[in-house]
Amino acid sequence: MNKKMMQQLQDLQREMNETQERLLMTEFEGKASGVKVIMLGSHQVVDINIDEDLFEDKDMLQDAILLAINDAVENVRKTTNDEMSKFTAGLGLRF
After folding, report:
1. Given this model, what pLDDT does residue 93 score?
2. What is the pLDDT of residue 86?
């Protein structure tokens, strides 16, 4: 492998690592029926906002929280796949 190609691979690896770090600290939102969840790319939930009207129906509140969290997780997954696929295009690799 020549020196130029080696440098290109090192640059690509550095860019991938920077992108992964940025994604881990990016906030993602999930919503469902009066519940909003804020989650980091690391899947840590950092905030939950609940519409007060949901406090009267425990089952509905629980379902809305689950749906909002799952929505946030899906947003993390999709964004991570989209961002990382820029580096793996044509290689057949998935994240």
Report:
1. 55
2. 85
